[in-house]
Amino acid sequence: MGLRQVWRFNSFRRTNVILQHLGMSKHTDAAGEVLLERRGCAGVITLNRPKFLNALNLNMIRHIYPQLKNWEQDPETFLIIIKGAGGKAFCAGGDIRDCCRKPYVALIHGITMGGGVGLSVHGQFRVATEKSLFAMPETAIGLFPDVGGGYFLPRLQGKLGYFLALTGFRLKGRDVYAAGIATHFVDSEKLDMLEEDLLALKSPSKENIADVLDAYHTKSKIDQDKSFILEEHMDKINSWFSANTVEQIIENLQQDGSSFALEQLKVINKMSPTSLKITVRQLMEGSSKTLQEVLTMEYRLSQACVGGHDFHEGVRAVLIDKDQSPKWKPADLKEVTDEDLNNYFKPLGSNDLKF
C-alpha cells in the first residue's frame, strides 16, 4: 500500500468510526453503493447510499478513483457529473482529495458536509438547489475542516471562510451560491433536465458546459430576490474574524455585544480549543499555499488529531453517548501553547504525503 493509500485509509478509518456510531454499517463491497456510468458525452458518478446520506466509504473511493482516471484518458468523455441518490443528501461524510482534470460538474443537492465538500468544492462547476445544506462542523468534534478546507475557505469573500470554519454555521439553498461555494443555482425540479442537456452536448468545451449551466441558473426563480443570510453581518464578520488569533476573535465578539455576536461567541466557546487554534492557523497558512501544499499540511494535521485526545472525545460526546458535553483537553485556549500547535503542523519526514 503506497503512502497515498495509507493516508486515505487513515482518513476513512476515522470516517467509518463516525458512520458506525451513526448506525451506518461499514460495507466491504461497494457494488451498488456507487454507480459509474458512461452516458452521452459524460461519465456519471452516482453516490448510491441514500439511507446513509450517501456517505462515502473506502471501498466506494476504490471504485471511483480508477474510473475517474480512465475517463480522464478517454477522448470520448468530455465531462464528469457527480450526484447523490435519493434527493436528501449529496454526500454527508468521507473524504476524497484527488482533483479531476476534465470539466467536473457536482450537483450538490441536499446535505453537503465532510466528504461531500471534498467531492464538490474543488470542482470547476458546483450546482446548488433550494434543498442544499452546506456546513463544516469539524471543530465541534475536535477536528478541523480537512477536505481541502485550508485552500477554499480562506478564498471565500472577506473572512466568511473563517466564520464558517470556526462556528460550523449552516448555509442553505441559494445562500450556498451567494457564499461562493456553489457556482450556479438551479431549481431542484430542473436537475434531471439539466443533466440530460449536459449529457446531450457534442464534444463540449468548458464554455459549452458553462453556457448550459448559466441558462438554467438564469431561469431559476426560487428565492431569486432573497438577500444573503449573512449579508447584514458581513462587515462585522470581516472585522471580527480578521484577527490573527482565536483569543482576539473572541475578544472582538465580546466587545461588540450584539445578539448576533454573542450567539457566535456561545457557539465558538463550545468548540475544541485545540481545534479552533489549529483551524485559524490552517486557514491563514492555506491562503497562500497551493492545493497540494494544503493537502500535505492537512495530512499532517489529520495524523496528529487522530492520535490526540479531542477528536476521540468529540466523537464520543456528539456521536456515541450524545451528551453534547465534550471534555476537551486542554479545556482553555490559553492552555494550548504555540509549541503544542507547532507539533500539529510539523513535517512527517518520510511519512509525509506524496503526490
TrEMBL record:
Protein name from the UniProt record: 3-hydroxyisobutyryl-CoA hydrolase
Annotated metabolic or biological route of this protein: Amino-acid degradation; L-valine degradation
EC number(s) stated in the UniProt entry for this protein: 3.1.2.4
Source species: Canis lupus dingo
Protein family according to the UniProt entry: Belongs to the enoyl-CoA hydratase/isomerase family.
InterPro entries: ClpP/crotonase-like_dom_sf (IPR029045), ECH_dom (IPR045004), HIBYL-CoA-H (IPR032259)
Membrane-spanning residues: none
Catalyzed chemical reaction(s): 3-hydroxy-2-methylpropanoyl-CoA + H2O = 3-hydroxy-2-methylpropanoate + CoA + H(+)
Pfam family membership, one: ECH_2
GO biological process: L-valine catabolic process
Boundaries of every Enoyl-CoA hydratase/isomerase domain copy: 100-345
Stored CDD domains: crotonase-like
Gene that this sequence comes from: HIBCH
This protein's UniProt keywords: Branched-chain amino acid catabolism, Hydrolase, Mitochondrion
Localisation: Mitochondrion
Domain of life from the UniProt record: Eukaryota
Function: Hydrolyzes 3-hydroxyisobutyryl-CoA (HIBYL-CoA), a saline catabolite. Has high activity toward isobutyryl-CoA. Could be an isobutyryl-CoA dehydrogenase that functions in valine catabolism. Also hydrolyzes 3-hydroxypropanoyl-CoA.
Presence of the UniProt keyword Mitochondrion in the record: yes
GO molecular function, one term: 3-hydroxyisobutyryl-CoA hydrolase activity
Record bears the keyword Mitochondrion: yes
Cellular component GO terms held in the UniProt record: mitochondrion
